[in-house]
Structures are given as structure tokens and as C-alpha cells.
Amino acid sequence: MLNYATVGSNRLEEARRFYDELLPLAGMAPMFDHPSGGRLYSAPDGTMFGVLGPHDGGAATVGNGTMIGFSFETRAKAAAFHARAMELGGTCEGPPGLRGGEEMGAYFAYFRDLDGNKLCAYRWGPE
Question: Taking the model in full, what pTM does it have?
Fold first, then answer.
């Protein structure tokens, strides 16, 4: 079972502000500052997310095909997470909405953070 994910950043101070404002909507709070200048966040269930400077000291790059999803209890919360990311300077990669018919219950919203990392807010199942 997946319980943590990280993204790299070349703008760590800005990235920390972005995620400090965004991640509380996913039930996550700062856990500790990372030696790279980044920060790790955690949820009460032990799930962790981090924004870090790359270990090798090189530039952070976006993974081609890489995406990290945040699950929400309601469609409204997923949409609010996406909206907050847009307010904080994120870039829309697909507005909140159903992907497929209502019977599938696949409600997704896609965005990129300040460094171009692709993220998703979703609710799987009926409202």
C-alpha cells in the first residue's frame, strides 16, 4: 500500500508556502523541515507527502507520466482542493468533473504545482 510520495522543487521557499496553504485541505500538516530546504507533511492516518530538493544536488525535474493523487470524502472537497491550488498559482490540467458516466463515480480534478509536478484531487464512488 502506498503511504508517501515526494515531489522535487527548484523553488523550495515558494513550494513550502504553496503546500502549507494547500495540504491542510487534504488533512495534512507540516511534519518537519527537510535538510534539502523542503518540508514533509503528514496526515493522522500516517500518509506522508514531501516537497524536497533532489538528493543529488541537481535540478528538480517533472516526471513524464508521473502524477500523485489525493483522495477526498466528497466531490466538493476535491473541487475545493483544486480551486485552492489555482488560487496559489497552480496550473489547471483538467477542471473538476466526472470522468465517464455517473455510474462510474470517477470525479477528478488535475493541476500542476509551481514546479510543474502533476497532482490530482479525486473522489471515487457516488457523491
Answer: 0.91
